[in-house]
Specification:
The protein is of the alpha+beta class and 184 residues long. Helices cover 40% and strands 14% of the residues. About 11% of the residues have low confidence.
């Protein structure tokens, strides 16, 4: 876990190094400290006046790190924190789902708070993001007493209601949320 490196944003020494992903991330604040993603294949894209290579070029004599080549599609933006990016994407998807269910901004904010709680407790790892978003919206619907059912959300998201139910139960139990029973 800790590699003797300090986070330049918060000063924490809790740094997670993942060689498979090729990055170093602060587990305290979520900052991406190093991201030298290596692409094993080259892609080409039509640039109007000819083809352009997309990806990163790594020379045999380079001492780690990568040089951007082409458009740099595989690069995480410099200075952007992975947690911020994750939350922005979640907000967009939760907002879209809530709008389809005709829920107001209050429900969007509440569902996003449940998502943040799940993210902080690492409950999102290994689960499909669409299931997490839908489960957070369903937890919100249950705690706020709306008439939305699990099957309503699974229909809108086009996901299996059993899988959504499993994700919902895992999140609500792990977050210790007291879910009221469905009204009469």
């Amino acid at each position: 876990m800790s590699s003797g490196v300090k986070c330049r944003n918060c000063g924490s020494t809790d740094i997670e190094e993942d060689n498979a992903r090729g990055d170093r991330v602060c587990t305290n604040c979520g900052s991406v400290l190093e991201d030298s993603l290596i692409v094993s294949e080259v892609q080409f894209e039509d640039a109007g006046h000819g083809a352009a290579a997309i990806g990163q070029f790594v020379s045999a004599d380079s001492a780690g790190g990568a040089t951007n080549y082409g458009y740099g599609k595989f690069q995480v933006g410099s200075g952007s924190e992975s947690r911020e990016v994750t939350i922005k994407k979640a907000k967009k998807e939760i907002t879209h789902l809530c709008q389809q269910l005709q829920l107001t901004q209050h429900y969007i904010d509440t569902a996003l708070n449940f998502f943040r709680m799940a993210l902080i407790r690492h409950l999102t790892r290994g689960r499909k993001s669409t299931h997490i978003y839908a489960a957070c919206v369903y937890i919100t619907c249950r705690t706020e007493g709306t008439s939305h059912l699990l099957i309503d959300i699974s229909d809108v998201q086009q996901i299996c209601s059993y899988e959504l139910g499993r994700t919902y139960l895992k999140l609500s139990n792990a977050l210790c949320i007291n879910i009221p029973s469905v009204g009469k």
